[in-house]
Structures are given as structure tokens and as C-alpha cells.
Amino acid sequence: MQIAVFGSTGRVGSKFIEYALAAGHSIRALARDASRVPPHERLTVVQGDIHDLDRVRDVIRGADAVVSALGGAGVEDPGTAQSQGMRNIVRVMQELGVRRVLGVAGGGILESPNGGLRHDQPSFPAVFKQVSARHKEAWLAMRDSGLDWTMVATGDIVPGERTGRIRTLEDYLPEGARKISVEDVADFLLRALTEGLHIGKRVGAGY
Questions:
Q1: pLDDT-based confidence at residue 49 (cuts at 50, 70, 90)
Q2: In 3D, which of 187, 166, 37 has the Cα closest to residue 102?
Q3: CA 150, CA 143: separation in Å to the nearest integer?
Q4: First to last CA, the chain
């Protein structure tokens, strides 16, 4: 499979690239600093920014699927890489006829058992509300795109191991699933892509 990857130098994006290459796939990735992406014979790096539609087209053209692991600049000022970035991604996918897209977001965009989204609950930490709002914009861009999308939503993403032993639940975070390893997020993204899982769904994932 030819996979376009955004957020290639981040924790999840870099692990996803590692696992996808090991599984025999080919990658075209966007990076602001191409020197931060380890070279590989099946990896092409396009240097540029997610806000540049021409660079986004260069990455997506010819792809079978797109994976976004775009991160924010910080909790106080997360920026627009995730939100506007996803809008740019789905726009270019629609132009080029690429159908499958997967992304990563925080668990705040999932449904609460009390009704509404988790990030709208009084108990949701205020410090993460701006970041979660950007994640919501990215999810809505995917949801309304008409594409075959999956948004993997998690609790805290922490360093760990690739165990493959995570719990998942569509639209909700599994009860008590407060964290997940970087490695298992990347592994699950690859499995969801290659096995066609959770199309048209948010999926909560964690331990």
C-alpha cells in the first residue's frame, strides 16, 4: 500500500512509519524538517508545512490511504495544524479521489455516558479544552468529508511497548482506559488501515 503520512516526526507518526515500512508498505511523508525523518528505500519525504496545499497535494497524490498524526503546539495555544491541517487533507483527498483517511485525537471528542461529548462535561480538565476543540474540528472535517474515515481517540499517550492488547469501543472511551502507549496507537492505526476497521467511526482506545 502507498500511504501518505502527516505528523511524520511526532511520536505516533514516526512509529507508524516504522511499523508500516516493516510491514512492506511505501510511505510519502510531509515534514517541516526532512532531516528529522530517517531514510528508507520505500520512504519519500516532502519538505513543507501542512498549511501549504501544494505540499499536501505532493504527499497525497498517488496514495491509497492517508494517516494524520498531526500534533498541536501546546495546551495553551495549540495552533491550527490539527484542525486546518485536516481540512486541507480532506480537501485534497476529495480533489484527487483518495478515499481512506485515519487520524488521532484526544478522548474528549468521544461521547460521554452522561450525554454530549466528554470535553463538554464539567469534570473535563479545563487545561485541555482548547486542544480538544481543535481535535473536534479535525474530527468534524473528517466526518463531513464523505470519505472513508476513522478517528482513533485516546486518553494519555505515553511511552511504552507495542503490546497489541488494547481495548476499543466505537464512539466511547472504554471504561477506565485512561492511557495507551505511543507504540500501541501506531500499531492500532496500522491494523485499522490494513484490516478496514471502524470506517466512519470514532473509536476509543486504551488499556
A1: very high
A2: 187
A3: 9
A4: 29
State what percent of residues in the chain have pLDDT above 70.
97
Residue found by looking up cell 497524490 in the block: 61
b/e code 167-184 from CB counts within 10 Å (16+ = b): ebbeebbbeebeebbbbb
pTM for the whole thing? 0.94
Strand 43-47 to 26-31 pairing: parallel
Reply yes or no on whether the pLDDT at 77 is more than 70: no
* Tens of pLDDT, residues 33-44: 999 999 999 999
Q: Is 143 helix (H, G, I), strand (E, B) or coil?
A: helix
Burial of 117 (0-12, 13-18, 19+ CB in 10 A): middle
Cα–Cα distance for residue pair 91/85, rounded to 1 Å: 10
Q: State the DSSP string of 4-27.
A: EEESTTSHHHHHHHHHHHHTT-EE
